[in-house]
Amino acid sequence: MDTITVLLLTFILSVTGLGVFIWSLRRNMFDENPEAASVIFSTGEIGHVEDPSATPEQRAGLQQVVTDGGKAVVDPSLASELKKELVDRLEADQSTAYVTFTFLCCAIVWLVFASTFGLISSIKLHNPEFLTEYAWLTFGRTRTLHLNMVAYGWCPMAAFGVAIWMLPRLLKTRLYGGRFALLGCMLWNAGLIAGLGSIAVGINDGLEWLEIPWQISILLVLGGALIALPLVFTLRNRKVEHLYVSIWYMGAALFWFPVLYLVGKMPGVHFGVEQATMNWWFGHNVLGLYYTPIALASVYYFLPKIVGRPIQSYNLSLIGFWALAFFYGQVGGHHLVGGPVPHWLITLSIVQSMMMIIPVMAFSVNQHLTMRGHFKTMYYSPTLRFIVLGAMMYTVSSFEGSLEALRSVSTVAHFTHFTVAHAHLGLYAFFSIVMFGAIYFVMPRVMSWEWPHPKLIIVHFWLVTLGIGIYVVGLSIGGWLQGLAMLDAAKPFMDSVHVTMPWLEARTVGGAMMTLGHLVFAVHFVQMALRYGTSRVGPALLHKRKSLPERQAIAGA
User: Fold this and answer.
1) Per residue, what are the HEC states of 51-109?
2) C-alpha distances in Å from residue 213, one per residue of 56, 144, 150, 191, 204
């Protein structure tokens, strides 16, 4: 079978499968689907805002914007039913408190360490003599340590923590199997610490994103599998008939990752060109089939909850999910353009990358329609600023990724800092910023305590936003100039190095701002964990076990 036939059949199969799925949905795709989309709300909650990170004044302004839009639903006859549902929610939140807190604490620790090593690596790019006294502080090791602390420290710990917290809320039951998640967390972090130690002393498997030796990686696979078990147990005990789209995304992500990592690290299987192909199959899929679904699940939950209205089109959200599952699996091959890889494999990857425009458009249109008439709420809601910005960056990074897969663009951008900028646009500007917003929503529910200094949330937001902006713009420009210089046969290679110097310094400036923002976030998190300061508003939830009358009193507050 020739290349053209393979590609044509793949394209037809993908489009046909997606077409059948779309046909099976209701015709009016952009109409509101109140029954399915309202699962995340309790009785009478639609129209009432919820943002634990906001001050009372911000919350009042946020509610005023929503109420003026005619969306509030106030029915005194539903008060008793709502109170009962809120008591059940308290029980569900309480069952996740300790597990979620454990994961988020680990996430903050890894975020600080990852930021530090990332900043050191950035400085070394334009000042190679910086911290060269010890082998473990050379660029090759600090950069690899930074990548693994982000990819297997901050990102998964934050994702697991947020997902486990959302799970009982979405299924309206308590968390089952929390001990398995805690054991998985212990194994995961033990494996990560051992893996980072091996990298620091110069022992690694030599594959980007897969540097941790496979003998140690067994702990991460086991840990990831154990952490996914509560999803199975809690699903079996759910009290809802309909599974909200966030459950689809989380369920897929929590089971995709152990499979991806197990295949990627399987010893004695991958060699030569096939190993390089697998490497980028894993590198792209861990972003698109693990981090991306968790972040999208978070957006689909927190954004409607904060603005107090269901997502505009539930059908569109399902199209986004299935299109992601259909098209993302083979997009990593475009990183091998120009390599000794079968031509059809590269072309297939480019086709799949362009087809990713479908789920991205489905999500972006849905988000915009949901926020339509509510964008002013971002002025009042600190959490919503992170959530909406991160969701917008998903659109930007995904479209850029599709364009970058084209041979004409890849010819210039390949092997340059442009690719690094794009990677940070996806994993940081999208995923990490969404996780920041989610943590600002979750932690007051975990600790029964409000954030002591809401202004620090604003400081954190602007530091990381401006920082990643400088970082991405600087590296994108520098990387493109670098690619053009490398393509010019009349120029020596060192010209392509010199042209990037000002932009690498800009990268360090942006990275320093992001690191400072992370330190502000970490300090604020510690204050919250220690229950520092006075409680501004009566907490909506748990921390200490309360009797039923006490919980009813809290729910009515």
Assistant:
1) CCCCCHHHHHHHHHHHHHCCCCCCCHHHHHHHHHHHHHHHHHHHHHHHHHHHHHHHHHH
2) 50, 13, 17, 10, 5
Identify the CA nearest to 192 among candidates 518, 200, 522.
Answer: 200
User: Whose CA is closest to 446, among 383, 534, 557, 525?
Assistant: 525
Residue matched to tokens 């209701």? 26
Give the chain's largest Cα–Cα span.
80
What percentage of the chain's residues is helix, strand, coil (to nearest 5)? Answer: 75, 0, 25
Contact 96, 167 (CB under 8 A): yes
User: How far is it, in rounded angstroms, from Cα 46 to Cα 74?
Assistant: 9
Q: Is the sign of the CA dihedral 521, 523, 529, 532 positive or negative?
A: negative
Query: What number of CA atoms fall less than 13 Å from residue 210's CA on the CB side?
Result: 27
d(CA 464, CA 56): 25
From CA 231, how far away is CA 92, in angstroms rounded? 14
Residue the block writes with tokens 């993302």: 328
Record the tokens describing residue 123, joined without a space: 């400085």
Place of tokens 């998903």: 394
Residue the block writes with tokens 């971002």: 378
Alpha-carbon distance of 194 to 138, in angstroms, equals 19
Contact between residue 175 and residue 167 where contact means Cβ atoms under 8 Å apart: yes
d(CA 164, CA 152) in angstroms, rounded, equals 17
- Pinpoint the alpha helices (H) of 127-241: 139-149, 155-171, 178-200, 214-236
Angle at 438 between CA 327 and CA 519, to 5 degrees: 115
pLDDT by residue for the chain (557 residues), tens digit each?
A: 465 665 566 667 666 766 665 665 555 555 555 567 888 887 777 878 888 888 888 888 888 888 765 445 545 666 666 677 777 788 888 899 999 999 999 999 999 999 999 999 999 999 999 998 889 999 999 999 999 999 999 999 999 999 999 999 999 999 999 999 999 999 999 999 999 999 999 999 999 999 999 999 999 999 999 999 999 999 999 988 888 999 999 999 988 888 899 899 988 888 898 898 999 899 999 999 999 999 999 999 999 999 988 998 888 888 899 889 888 988 888 888 888 888 888 888 888 898 898 899 999 999 999 998 888 889 899 999 999 999 999 999 999 999 999 989 999 998 999 999 999 999 999 999 999 999 999 999 898 888 999 999 999 999 999 999 999 999 999 999 999 999 999 999 999 999 999 999 999 999 999 999 999 999 999 999 998 876 655 444 433 444 444 444 433 33
d(CA 282, CA 284): 6
